[in-house]
Amino acid sequence: MYELVVVLSRKLRDFGLKVGVSESIDACNALKVVDRNDFTQFKTALKVTMIKDYTKYNVFDQMLDESLTDYVERAGDSGGEEEEGEDSGEPSEMSSKTRQDSRPGDKDQQNVKVVMYSPMEVLNRRQLKPIEVQSLREGKRIVKRLRRRLALLSGRRTRPSKKGEVDFVKTFRQSLSTIGEIIELKRFTRVKSRARLLVFIDISGSMDSYTDWLVRSMYVLRKFASRCEIFLFSTRLVRVTDIANIASPAEMIVKLHERVDIWGSGTRIGHSFRTFLEDYGNLVDRTWVIMVISDGWDTGEPELLTSSMERLRMKVGRIIWLNPHADKPNFKPMTIGMLAALPYIDVLAGTSALEDLPSYIRFFGRSIKPLKPKWYKREAQISRAFAYF
Amino acid sequence: MLGKLTVENLVVELEKELYVADQELATALFLAIAIKKPLLIEGEPGCGKTEIAKVLAKILNTELIRLQCYEGLDASDAIYEWNYPRQLLYIKMIEASKSPQEVEEEIFSEKYLLKRPLLKAITYDGPRPPVLLIDEIDRADEEFEGFLLEFLAEYQVTIPELGTIKAKVEPITILTSNRTREIGDGLKRRCLYLYISYPSKEKELRILKLKVKDLDQTVSEKIVNFVNLIRSRNDIMKKPGVAETLDWARALSMMNVKDLDKKVVLGTLPCILKTQEDLMRLDIDIMLNQIGVGKGV
Fold it and tell me: What is the CATH number of domain A133-147+194-386?
């Protein structure tokens, strides 16, 4: 029985899930107390202890099925060797039931996969160049500026502070502990909410020549924005926030190489955004700013992109689109993806905005004001976006 | 109850308290009790995450201690605070009669401690462990989450003036989250994890039957079909949860509705859809046709 847990956790780990030793121990403890002849109980016991993210539930189903098959085969091969007592009898009996049970589920998963599969997808891993930390100085400064620019207006929430307005309630409450004598004035300042940043980076074929720059800006954005989620997309969407969190750039590159296998595939922007809305939709709210780094070449359906953009627009505070071609003097956003997304974009800038200060000022200098805690007027956005024509 | 607890038992007991749970949820709860680990439940709003803790407390015949999380929640709201006014009164009363040391010992005793939920949970003095519900943990700051790590691992709290207080009976802890923010890996690792999504049609029908008793069977079927139709649409921002379905069913039952028609639906739709955009977006005629209502109208 424990062997099965070990096999399963190794398989899950290979798939990139975080299943540590403590999870395996919990799983074994859980299996001890549930009724192992009941497949639902058996499976749930493994699931609640080992999987801590519901988007990985289908991976778990698949891996469990594989491990059970392995386990039964191995038990069959070794014949009577494993029959030590009650433990080895139960699982094989149960797992034959399991295999029947899980077939239909298996088919479902294949269906899901068919949806995700596209003829344009080329499984492709990239050997990435190491990041030179010295070259990031300018980028760091720009992201810091951007962070200030994107900050929200101070709200009603307060935070204790040395300077600022006098907090009478706290002062009097404190004075009670010194018999009503006010010894120091408690003060507070209003909390200035920092915008959170959600970055979508296009790593499809058309963005191929920018790969190193993309990886570098991913590193810079993650390290110097206060809270930041990073997704890569081409034909699929891959979340890499945890990888970008790794302190050492060298290790980050290695992990990125292991995880991401969609470099240089086709682009399905709308589909990727839809996946985001379905799986991580609750993650964002009005305090978030979306930054899309893409050239807008889209092989998917533009309608899907429009509808996804509309939904994103309603959810988040601002959408910024960085297009590598927007640096060119006579740039006009004419690609299908750009045209579909344009009405929902607040700022369309060139990628150089993240690289050198003059360019940053050109694109972000006056166009962004602190976000007011109420809805933007749609008309204003549209007219601003169309000012590029 | 705790001694002879099994998963099947739990399902039956939950249903007695009008909570329809599937095997999966019951197993997760059972494990939380049996291997004494906190259970983190994530899921769509209105799927009965909070309710499960309340019902569990009822079944186990013990107290429910609830900590509602919000942004800016800090230790003095979650663990303890000294009752300054009371200390002050005491000092005024006995001012001259006792030595300062005696006074100090007296006023920093448990008598003058305001227990907030977490401290209350570990000092709970009952025969059975209490159920501690930490609700909407995703709303609290990450710092608070970090603090919880220690609390959930050791079930102990240190008060400088009093020393360390360790739990007499470890509470059964249930955390809920709406996924407005990703919960940190550390906290997740210390918990069992379960995701609850919207129930199947059959399950939702059973819930309606249990909770809204005097509702017509055909009406409740139509309600469930209609709500499921809304949930299947991608352009609805706030999808109705089970709580909304129940509200709607209760409203219809209060109005003594025998059959759904357009007028009734239009009048009561705000029970399930809570934003103006969503209300505008629905094409009611088509949807009613799809569930087989309003053909004759």
Answer: 3.40.50.410
Question: Which residues lie across from A320 on neighbouring strands?
Answer: A291, A347
Sign of CA dihedral A133, A138, A144, A150: negative
Q: Predicted ipTM?
A: 0.82
Of the given ranges (A123-132, B184-193, B215-224, B261-270), which has the lowest mean pLDDT? A123-132
Q: Does any CB of chain A come closer than 8 Å to the CB of residue B149?
A: no
CA dihedral B251, B43, B120, B88 (to 10 degrees): -80
Length of chain A: 389
Kindly report, residue by residue over A262-278, the tens digit of the pLDDT.
777 778 888 889 889 88
Q: Which of B72, B88, B193 sits opposite A51 (nearest CB)?
A: B193
Q: Which residues of B touch A282 (CB under 8 A)?
A: 178-180
A367: number of Cβ within 10 Å: 15
B153 touches chain A (CB under 8 A): no
Kindly state whether B66 is in contact with chain A, defined as any CB-CB distance less than 8 angstroms: no
CA–CA gap between residue B126 and residue B103 (Å, rounded): 31
How would DSSP label each residue in A205-222?
Answer: GGGGGGHHHHHHHHHHHH
* B280 Cβ under 8 Å from any chain A Cβ: no
Q: Is the dihedral of CA B289, B292, B296, B297 positive or negative?
A: negative
A211-224 vs A249-259: helix axis angle to the nearest 10? 120
Chain B residue with CA closest to A54: the answer is: B195
Distance CA A119, CA A124 (A): 14
> Could you say which of B85, B194, B235 has the minimum Cβ distance to residue A48?
B194
Residue A226 in contact with partner chain B when CB distance is under 8 A: no
pLDDT digits (tens, 9 = 90+) for A277-334: 888 888 888 778 899 998 888 777 888 888 889 888 888 888 888 888 888 877 887 7
Distance, CA of A40 to CA of A28 (rounded, Å) = 16
Query: Which whole number is the average pLDDT over B70-96?
Result: 84
- Do A52 and B27 count as a contact with CB atoms less than 8 A apart? no
Residues contacting A233, CB < 8 A, separation 6+? A200, A201, A202, A203, A204, A262, A267, A268, A269, A272
Q: Determine the distance in angstroms separating the CA of B244 from the nearest CA of chain A, rounded to an integer.
A: 19
Give the span between the Cα atoms of A142 and A355, in whole angstroms. 7
A172 touches chain B (CB under 8 A): no
- Rounded distance between C-alpha atoms, residue B272 and residue A157, angstroms: 31
Interface residue A38 vs chain B (CB under 8 A): yes
Q: What is the pTM of this model?
A: 0.64
| Domain locations in chain A as residue ranges | 2-115, 133-147+194-386, 155-192
Asked if the Cβ–Cβ distance from A52 to B189 is below 8 Å, we say yes
